[in-house]
């Protein structure tokens, strides 16, 4: 904690690089019912010595909270804005408004612009295939025209399904871009190469495991234990290396063998699936972080300091669960900024090191909404009421293999009712459910199953608002420095 918590210390005490190992980045997503205020999150990043963050938009409150922190930022253009960015003037406006504007002494240290988010996912049916590269070109050109091109690079965070190896030769050296997008991928990587911009890829060993019952369990982790995949004399003992090197081979085939690669997302969820739990997440991070600190690289790119952003920082209970219930449980912190498990971000392997929790978080009063056992209400209405509660709040911890799966029927009802009540900011009318619910001042949590006490967005918001002043002062600041 602390010593290398700020960039100032890092530059004064050069030694800190050695102490801190790799500089880990994190993904800061905000799709939460009651998101933590940005200012609290930025303090939490600093307290944990996290110096790089990847965003999914360019939200003004987030950006103002980051101002002056020196944290390196990847700011983003969501997929639904890619079509607009096919127009150069719109791209220029975006850059003016969301990058140049923060480029002052004490502003935001923007290093990358993410153009889209996994736009070539097969599940998008090609909707973004023809509009991503033009958007990328316009954004990089607008950055160059704004005089920022040397320090700010446009990239596209891509899902690992943009490349593969043939069905009959599943080895990394056979990696190529997916046939249906080969042309646009080839143009894009050559553009990155010309502009000294990196390729950004999201790699998810958890999803490899989730996708296939036949996937060798231990191959998802870094501690060996499964039969290696042998490729031209190289033994691959984990899917992360194999996947990364499949990309290295695809880049080589596309004529850019040395293009730098940023890992935009990598992590392990802690709930919402039989393999999404703290034990597996710890095993995964305990393998990943020391490798990054050792600058081990992969067999085809050995001894490199990989640029990596963990996914994610905080749980997001409003994310779509189309991919699976685990989708809301990727955080290394709970929704309220409490750490989930011991973790040594420096990669020095201290197994008892705890992350620093968010400070000054204001919670709603100590009240929970639970099943009313007085027997007066009509219990045949229970299922409908649970359904309703779960439609408007997060019940993903109730499912098979999840942290609250061992509750009895009444416990289930309590869990669902409480999540709805908390999501609604504890409004009295939100704990009725046709007489089936009642308010309790006792925390109903049992063992692993934690009943939520939501954070108070209003109280927290008052803490955050003076930050907007920073922006109001921008023109003055530019003048002064
Ligand atoms: C800047 O980013 C914000 C947040 O992502 C977005 O809503 C806004 O439209 C962007 N500004 C311009 C001029 O494109
Ligand atoms: C893609 O196509 C499938 C099947 O035709 C459809 O169910 C799905 O909604 C489509 N997705 C998008 C994002 O268009
Ligand atoms: C993308 O462009 C190609 C070639 O011009 C065209 O065949 C294809 O239909 C386009 N795809 C979409 C989704 O617009
Ligand atoms: C992919 O595209 C590049 C450039 O257009 C071409 O040279 C290469 O042969 C293509 N690869 C495949 C497998 O189609
Ligand atoms: C953490 O573990 C290290 C050895 O790995 C030990 O020296 C240290 O005292 C432990 N700290 C705490 C707080 O338990
Ligand atoms: C309970 O609700 C069910 C279905 O809505 C209804 O058929 C039943 O009559 C109700 N029982 C009582 C005691 O009100
Ligand atoms: C509680 O809810 C979960 C998820 O909806 C379900 O799998 C489980 O069977 C329920 N348990 C009881 C006792 O109703």
TrEMBL record:
Keyword Membrane: yes
Superkingdom assignment: Eukaryota
InterPro entries with a match to the protein in the record: GH, Glyco_hydro_17, Glyco_hydro_17_plant, X8
Membrane topology (UniProt): Lipid-anchor; GPI-anchor
SUPFAM superfamilies: (Trans)glycosidases
Compartments in which it is found: Cell membrane
Protein name: glucan endo-1,3-beta-D-glucosidase
Source organism phylogeny: Eukaryota, Viridiplantae, Streptophyta, Embryophyta, Tracheophyta
């Amino acid at each position: 904690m602390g010593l290398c918590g700020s960039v100032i210390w890092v530059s004064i005490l050069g030694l800190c690089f050695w102490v801190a190992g790799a500089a880990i980045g994190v993904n800061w997503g905000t799709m939460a019912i009651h998101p933590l205020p940005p200012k609290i999150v930025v303090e939490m990043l600093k307290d944990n010595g996290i110096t790089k963050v990847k965003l999914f938009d360019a939200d003004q409150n987030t950006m103002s909270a980051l101002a002056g922190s020196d944290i390196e930022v990847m700011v983003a253009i969501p997929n639904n804005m890619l079509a607009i960015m096919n127009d150069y003037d719109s791209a220029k406006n975006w850059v003016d408004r969301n990058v140049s504007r923060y480029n002052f002494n004490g502003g935001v240290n923007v290093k990358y612009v993410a153009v889209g988010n996994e736009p070539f996912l097969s599940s998008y049916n090609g909707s973004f295939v023809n509009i991503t590269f033009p958007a990328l070109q316009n954004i990089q050109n607008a950055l160059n025209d704004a005089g920022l091109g040397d320090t700010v690079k446009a990239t596209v965070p891509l899902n690992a399904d943009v490349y593969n190896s043939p069905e009959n030769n599943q080895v990394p050296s056979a990696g190529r871009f997916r046939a249906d997008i080969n042309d646009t991928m080839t143009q894009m990587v050559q553009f990155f190469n010309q502009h000294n911009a990196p390729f950004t890829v999201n790699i998810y060993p958890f999803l490899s495991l989730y996708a296939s019952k036949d996937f060798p369990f231990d191959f998802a982790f870094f501690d060996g234990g499964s039969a290696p995949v042998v490729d031209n004399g190289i033994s691959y003992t984990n899917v992360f290396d194999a996947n990364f090197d499949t990309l290295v081979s695809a880049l080589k085939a596309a004529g850019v063998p040395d293009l730098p690669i940023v890992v935009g997302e990598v992590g392990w969820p802690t709930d919402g699936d039989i393999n999404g739990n703290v034990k597996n997440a710890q095993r995964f991070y305990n393998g990943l972080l020391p490798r990054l600190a050792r600058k081990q690289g992969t067999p085809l790119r050995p001894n490199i300091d990989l640029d990596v952003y963990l996914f994610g920082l905080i749980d997001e209970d409003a994310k779509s669960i189309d991919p699976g219930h685990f989708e809301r449980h990727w955080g290394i912190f709970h929704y309220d900024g409490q750490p989930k498990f011991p973790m040594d971000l420096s990669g020095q392997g201290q197994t008892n090191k705890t992350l620093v929790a968010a400070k000054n978080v204001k919670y709603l009063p100590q009240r929970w909404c639970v099943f009313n056992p007085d027997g007066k209400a009509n219990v045949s209405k229970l299922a409908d009421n649970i359904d309703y509660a779960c439609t408007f709040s997060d019940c993903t911890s109730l499912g098979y293999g999840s942290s609250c799966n061992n509750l009895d029927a009444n416990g289930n009802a309590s869990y669902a009712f409480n999540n709805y009540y908390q999501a609604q900011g504890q409004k009295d009318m939100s704990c009725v459910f046709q007489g089936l619910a009642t308010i309790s001042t006792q925390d109903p949590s049992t063992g692993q199953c934690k009943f939520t006490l939501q954070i108070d967005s209003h109280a927290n918001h008052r803490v955050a608002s003076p930050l907007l002043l920073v922006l109001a002062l921008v023109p003055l600041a530019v003048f002064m420095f």
